[in-house]
Amino acid sequence: MGRASPLLLVLLALGFFFAAYNLLTLVIQYKDSSTGLGSGISDSVIGMPANFRKSGKSNLKFHVALTATDAPYSQWQCRIMYYWYKKMKSMPGSDMGKFTRVLHSGKGDHLMDEIPTFVVDPLPEGLDQGYIVLNRPWAFVQWLEKATIEEEYILMAEPDHIFANPLPNLAHGDNPAGFPFFYIKPTEHEKIVRKFYPEEKGPVTDVDPIGNSPVIIKKTLLEEIAPTWVNVSLRMKDDPETDKAFGWVLEMYAYAVASALHGVRHILRKDFMLQPPWDLEVGKRFIIHYTYGCDYNMKGELTYGKIGEWRFDKRSHLSGPPPKNLTLPPPGVPESVVRLVKMVNEATANIPGWDSLNSG
To answer: d(Cα 280, Cα 31) in Å, to the nearest integer?
Structure first.
């Protein structure tokens, strides 16, 4: 009775470890957990809603929509994203329909003629409390209300997404498809989640470990979820405990909770997206998400947390686009990073006016 078992000691140690989580330990865990991910369909589906009906597969076209601002940082990413959308749209295996950049700056910019764009209003001044991502759910609410959208399904995407393979409709009927993020863990934040998802709604495990992007979802379902997503996001931001706990992923948790409040569960597809440098190969995965910096020494060794002798980081180009013909990584760098830089280089070499259209 007075002696702890080895298993209990291990569990306690793990508890202290997770309590001390920071970004560096998170990304290292992600590196370990993503090694050797299978690319086959059966290996890629890691979560399936209990009410899933296989007969619901529709193979219908989906509308590609991303929210964006008129800042140069957002603009150059949107241009690269749209370039690869156009290349992949008509390829075999693609169910992509039309494309919209939902611009939540309240006014048009110089890319209106280059990228199909729908202008919506930002949140009233001060309401986002400096957290600009809160404009995303509000942008979708306005777009869904005012725009004519022909497709039955919508892919919610982001500017820093690149289509690496033709993307089919991964949703099945009323079951949307989402990507499981390793850092979205509702069960580990049950006390906070319960502020917005009461017990009578169901177990916390009904809140999927996802954000809103990438997600392929029926338009009618998103029309129901989006207003709730706005309200939950604002309530979370106004709650100091929640804001501190969720930080930069608060809006992602808000979407997951809003979906659960409407009884919507997502098919979890780990082949939906990869995130260099932690995912080492593109394989059959569909979207490259270049949110993390890629830093290496000239031996091809990752130096995450320290600026590398060779690096690609989107945040190095906050005020304008990266130059054409970026230097390729040194030998030994993972294929996913090499592929990312090559795809950026191809886009910048072929997008008209890349060097001249630097500002609005």
So the answer is: 9
